[in-house]
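Record pair follows.
FIRST:
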Amino acid sequence: MGTKQHTVPASFLKNWAATDEGRNSKIYMHGIDLSNVRISVENVCHQRDFYTPDREKDNLISPIEGGFISIINRYNAMAACEIMEGPELLLDIFYVAHLFLRGGGFINYTEKERIDLIDEWMVDFLRSVFMDGNAGGNDLQEIGHSLIQAAKSNWCVKIMEVRGDELLIGDDPVLSIIGASDHVAFILPISPNRAMIIFDVRRIELVSNIIEAEVCALMNGMTAAKAQRFVYSRNRLTEEECATAAKVIGKYTMTCEYENGKIKTMDFSADEIDRLRIWRRRT
């Protein structure tokens, strides 16, 4: 990966590019002090030695980055409103979990090399969120076997299409939804025109196949509020849209910390997310 290590892969951000030039594809960047800056996806969402300055350790993360590309391509090829269940969902969960853990508190974590924390945090996160804390072993391979069964019975992915507007993407892109007891869903924009929702079928039921313009605007507000520094768009935003995004960027801070041996995460509440009107809670 080299010294320039991305917090959000360029291969993912390329879906928001206004031009098609591979990693040199141009995207619009918006922040508190910057508006409508056109920049290549290769030159955003990165930090020198983000994971580690050790090149040998750095090579450990490269296969994960490479695997993301095939997953992103599969998302783009899926039909709108298509639902995915079963073992294939395992890759989706790992991908979203990696993006989720890279954001927020992880970006600001400096006490230990982040690359040494990735597997440790992933094991705790996957066990506590997707498997209700019930999985033996402290190895990702062992967790993976248990996760296949948990995903097959309790979680699924749905691709939703946006109507009448376009989604923004942030430098901390995964929106986590907290229910009465724990996470019930994760929303990840995968292009300006579609998003994927990983949800717990025991706790919510999706009631819409379309993200209407009003819901898209709310999701964009959440994305901007959760961003560390910048949000990105495919098309140039108006001055009013830039001003609105600038007011909320960085206003929301996600914490990611250990509590009683498990990762404690704070994110958007299910009460607030009910405004999206794309699901109803199961009782």
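SECOND:
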Amino acid sequence: MIKKTFILIALIWIGFLGYLVFEKPGDELLEELASKDPVVQSSEPVAQDPVASKIPEKSAEPEVIPFTPLPDKMKIAEKEQPLEMVETVPERETPSAESKKSDLGNSFGLICTKFEKIPSRFRLSSWEGTKNVEIEDLSRIDSSTKNHPKFWLKVRVPYKELIHPSSGDSFFKPTSMSDPNKRILVQSFEVRNEALSFTSRTNPIGYLILKDFKIGGPPYQITSQMDAPLSSSYYIHFEQVLGAQKFFHDLTGKRNGHPFGGWGYEYKITRQDFSQNKIKVMRKDLEKGSYVSKELDGPTSL
């Protein structure tokens, strides 16, 4: 049934085509085709020309613009990088110089240039019992004997130093503790018998405690075995720095707390530690009234 239906439709379609062919002659069909073709051909070039001309222009711009400037920018960036690094070097040096200047301006302004024990002027030579001792003056040479002059002193008796008018030699005379010119005082003396190595014999050694009022400081000990004894006082020298100016202060023999300095600042030594080579100093700003303490290092021996 279905096949018959398709056959019928095919026959009807063939009959319709035959009608069209035979109803209009071939010349009329050709004329219609000729009249229709020019319309299609004349309209197509007008529509295609502007589209064809615009497409190359738009496609040409993205091909030239993105690629030609990129190599130039990369070259410029590579050339500018080393120049920027060279220019930043002096810019970094300038702040560092300014920071150093500011550090100097905020510094403590004091430097210890000398911190060492003062050698004792006197050395223990001999003794009689425990009340009289003989000392040598290591700072002088006797003109007649060419040796160091020696003096006998009594224990716990202060002495003042006098100069002989003719020879110029010094000698010591007993005085009182109230005498402002007193020079030395033997505070105590004792003898200790110490055993010698590899023998049963003993060797007496004298121990003397001496106070030197001139150099100041606490009393110090001298034994008969010391050839070059040291005192308990120190040579203390400071350098005060004020910009390009420098001022020097000698604190030798001065007690702790003695004020020194100037030019707007006052300094005082509050503590000394010779074993650690340290001196603690307090600074007062006279204008502001503020206090600052700092532990200074003594100069190191080379």
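COMMENT: Confidence is low (pLDDT under 50) at residues 36-62, 81-106.
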